[in-house]
Design brief:
Blueprint (H helix, E strand, L loop, with lengths): L2 H12 L3 H12 L7 H8 L3 H13 L3 E3 L5 E3 L4 H16 L1 H22 L6
Antiparallel strand pairs: 1-2
Helix pairs in contact: 1-5, 1-6, 2-4, 3-4, 5-6
């Protein structure tokens, strides 16, 4: 698999929203620092719900590590995940609009698949 295809797949599968990517990049910029949810809400100028959902998906994806006091920090679960996060960051720096469209289209694809599951068929 080419690295570019791998990075695009990583972005599609890892980020439910652009907010999630922005949150990851904020934490990635200061990997030694732990962040509380209120700090993340303030820094991203986002809502508590968006930050909560983004943190949960990034923790599940092996990109963030939660701490006992409710804080989180950037801690990729493997070298491969760290490499993909670095590549995603570089791509986002070079082509931010393309990455945003990829994330949004992934979310729409998931929403369509969910809606299709409830569609009644006429047989």
């Amino acid at each position: 698999m080419s690295e570019n295809v791998e990075v695009l797949g990583f972005i599609r599968n890892s980020f439910r929203s652009v907010w999630s990517l922005e949150l990851l990049l904020l934490l990635k910029a200061q990997p030694e620092r732990s962040w509380s949810r209120p700090e993340l809400v303030e820094q991203l100028r986002s809502s508590d719900l968006v930050v909560e959902q983004s943190v949960a998906s990034l923790v599940a994806g092996g990109l963030l590590l939660p701490e006992g006091d409710g804080q989180v920090h950037y801690a990729p679960a493997s070298k491969d995940i760290a490499r993909l996060a670095d590549a995603a960051e570089r791509l986002y720096q070079r082509k931010p609009d393309a990455v945003r469209r990829l994330i949004v289209s992934s979310s729409l694809d998931q929403l369509t698949a969910f809606a299709d599951a409830f569609r009644l068929r006429k047989d």
